[in-house]
């Protein structure tokens, strides 16, 4: 009997989920960005805003979110997540870390995760408002690493093309300290015998170490295959045991592709990765997203230096390819995405003064390249904003001996918890030129999250504007 009840409950839940997903009352919002872009802090803060908006005066702390401004927001609550095979987003843990006596940033997520909220609101218009004075939007928020989108070009590249692109002479990977050792290891490989699994695993581990150095020590962004550093549940599987080969092992002196057992095996591993990892990601998850937010840490990239900033620009461009749904494009032939609103947001703009936030936004638009807003998308609305999930600073004015009266930001430094007041420097409006990099003088500090009272919500910058773009029409 208990079994029957449980089964019945599961069936009911499933039927409800299908019902929600096929009506206007369900929305799947995907959040992505490269590691460190601020996804975890953003989702935690956004969920907190929605869960507490009915108790925060005035207008739920979200005056630009019309459902709050028009006082139609009735409340939000957590609901059981719909997909049992996706990890849950660790909201409670993240909140505890942020609200500890000594507030810290939550641990970044490195895999796909989700959570579901139910938002109760008073409908303003349409058939719903004539039938009921309370409606519910079921909102799924899905977090996934932007690095996974960098694999998209692999769907159209052969193993040889992929290798040649990754190990091209000017590529940053060729400048890593372990690169020549990696190449020597490759030249020792038996070319005409079936390579042992252990050998492939060991060489791919050396390749992974190059990527680790590139991304974690030197601050670059582009690392392929995307799952090697962020394997999710593929950790330790042979699907990740492959690596690119340099041109001298791929082509003979005339430029003709070489054929041998090693290349043959790596080609097989490469296509297994594309078929079993890259494609299913788009088919299983991507096709289901209704709205997409891409967070971009433009300020962090500027801080790291020219080569890293340019690498981030390339990564963003590669990532953006996943959202080009235009007619006759790649998407129309392979999948049918239904994302109808796409938002790019510069994150963490609380680190700079108010005047500089406009510059950060125009720089993001430049990075997205001309025509980004059309993005040859069929019917997809595209927007860009500058936001901060958790405002860690206060704005003020200070006197500088050379510059005179200047705008400053002030907050608690994350490392030593001292109060820091500074003019963080000027953010370029357009893509930085040589002169900029020669004179660059940024002081973007890692600020700690502020300590706030238990009944207060964290301050933010423009999350209400962002919510209006991403959810406003679904709550009207
Ligand atoms: P993820 O890897 O994309 O999930 O990025 P996280 O959310 O873990 O953020 C990475 C780091 O960026 C955090 O540890 C913070 O130091 C910083 N950060 C994130 N959001 C904000 C924000 O709104 N303001 C400030 N000042 N720093 C932030």
Automatic annotation (TrEMBL):
<protein>
    <recommendedName>
        <fullName>ATPase</fullName>
    </recommendedName>
</protein>
<dbReference type="Pfam" id="PF04317">
    <property type="entry name" value="DUF463"/>
</dbReference>
<dbReference type="InterPro" id="IPR027417">
    <property type="entry name" value="P-loop_NTPase"/>
</dbReference>
<dbReference type="InterPro" id="IPR007413">
    <property type="entry name" value="YcjX-like"/>
</dbReference>
């Amino acid at each position: 009997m208990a079994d029957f009840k449980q089964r019945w409950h599961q069936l009911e839940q499933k039927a409800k989920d299908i019902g929600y997903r096929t009506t206007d009352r369900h929305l799947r919002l995907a959040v992505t960005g490269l590691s460190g872009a601020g996804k975890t802090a953003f989702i935690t803060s956004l969920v907190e805003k929605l869960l507490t908006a009915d108790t925060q005066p005035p207008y739920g702390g979200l005056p630009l979110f019309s459902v709050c401004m028009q006082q139609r927001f009735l409340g939000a609550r957590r609901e059981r997540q719909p997909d049992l095979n996706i990890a849950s987003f660790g909201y409670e843990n993240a909140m505890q870390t942020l609200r500890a006596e000594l507030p810290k940033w939550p641990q970044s997520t490195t895999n796909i995760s989700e959570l579901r909220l139910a938002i109760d609101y008073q409908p303003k218009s349409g058939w719903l408002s004539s039938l009921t004075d309370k409606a519910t939007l079921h909102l799924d928020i899905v977090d996934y690493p932007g690095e996974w989108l960098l694999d998209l070009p692999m769907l159209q590249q052969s193993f040889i093309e992929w290798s040649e692109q990754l190990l091209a002479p000017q590529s940053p990977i060729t400048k890593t300290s372990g690169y020549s050792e990696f190449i020597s290891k490759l030249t020792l490989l038996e070319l005409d015998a079936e390579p042992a699994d252990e050998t492939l695993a060991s060489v791919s581990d050396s390749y992974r170490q190059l990527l680790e150095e590139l991304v974690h020590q030197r601050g670059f962004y582009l690392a392929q295959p995307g799952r090697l550093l962020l394997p999710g549940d593929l950790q330790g599987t042979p699907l990740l045991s492959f690596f690119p080969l340099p041109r001298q092992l791929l082509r003979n002196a005339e430029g003709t592709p070489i054929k041998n057992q090693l290349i043959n095996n790596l080609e097989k591993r490469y296509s297994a990765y594309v078929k079993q990892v890259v494609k299913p990601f788009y088919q299983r998850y991507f096709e289901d997203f209704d709205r997409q937010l891409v967070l971009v840490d433009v300020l962090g990239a500027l801080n790291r230096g020219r080569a890293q900033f340019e690498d981030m620009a390339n990564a963003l461009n590669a990532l953006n390819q996943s959202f080009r749904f235009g007619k006759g494009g790649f998407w129309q032939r392979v999948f049918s995405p239904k994302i109808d609103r796409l938002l790019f947001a510069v994150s963490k703009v609380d680190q700079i003064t108010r005047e500089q936030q406009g510059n950060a936004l125009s720089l993001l638009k430049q990075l997205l390249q001309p025509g980004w807003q059309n993005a040859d998308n069929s019917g997809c609305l595209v927007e860009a904003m500058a936001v901060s999930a958790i405002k860690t600073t206060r704005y003020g004015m200070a006197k500088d001996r050379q510059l005179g009266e200047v705008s400053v930001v002030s907050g608690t430094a994350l490392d030593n918890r001292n109060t820091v007041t500074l003019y963080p420097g000027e953010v370029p409006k357009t893509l930085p030129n040589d002169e900029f990099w020669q004179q660059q003088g940024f002081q973007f500090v890692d600020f700690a999250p502020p300590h706030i009272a238990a009944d207060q919500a964290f301050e933010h910058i423009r999350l209400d504007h962002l919510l209006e773009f991403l959810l406003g029409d679904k709550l009207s």
